[in-house]
Amino acid sequence: MVHAFSRTRPAPGPPVAAPDVDRAKPRQRPRGGVTRTRTALVTGASSGIGAAVARRLSAEGAWRLVLSGRDPARLRRVAEDTSATAFAMDLTLPGADRQLADYTLAAAGPVDLLVAGAGIGWAGEFLDMPPHTIDELLDTDVLATMRLVRAVLPGMVEAGSGRIVLIGSLAGCVGVRDEAVYSAAKAALGAFADALRYELRGTGVGVTHVVPGVVDTPFFEHRGAPYRRSRPRPVPPERVADAVRRAVVRGRDEVYVPGWLRLPCRVRGAAPGLYRWLAARFG
């Protein structure tokens, strides 16, 4: 995932640069049964889960990749490793969603798969959280993702195929102390995934909600506090990337990484009082 609070537009530089999308000729979906390489757009691809997903999809050799992230240098390295086209940008900027969607269409063709992995976090008591940081977190983790989905979804519906993958978090299922706003943002993504899935039934477009627990990425460095709990133990981002790939292949609606994380989510849903008592006692 992308973890940065800068709202300045990153300076482009090959291969992390956007073409003139107003002049570029969009690649159209072939007609008459002609097959083509599918296009995957991955956000938050500078590092962490997004970078791991990009490398996993690249290893299949079946995808034309477009990567987006805020860190041009890191994104450039991931793009070189995956033979991808990349565009460094801040998705919270006005019009960024449309610009990225148009860029992807011009550079690689209609989007068949969107993996929305861009996100930031903040750790600490809610009373200590600066108001502007609340806005930044919700804008990055929720609004920017929704706007980008809105930009690419019409093409998928028109084609009758495609998949949206939203990277959520266990925090969105159970709530985590000292991560109130982050938990709320990820809960919003989970509800968005469910509601959108219902709307898209019968269109050929699927929605997958990926729910990882603690992942060994730079996320904790950037949120302001390291991860110090003994359990759950962090999993490598490659494990989440493998789960994303399996979910896309099998058309799964929701996956947990690791799988046992379904248990606390189900306990909270079935017996919220018991869950809150256990959470208060064991943290």
From TrEMBL:
GO MF annotations, alphabetized: oxidoreductase activity
Keywords, alphabetical: Oxidoreductase
Where the record annotates domain Ketoreductase, the positions are 38-218
Q: What is its EC number?
A: 1.-.-.-
Ranges for region Disordered: 1-35
**Protein family:** Belongs to the short-chain dehydrogenases/reductases (SDR) family.
Q: What is this protein called?
A: SDR family NAD(P)-dependent oxidoreductase
Species in which this protein is naturally found = Streptomyces viridiviolaceus
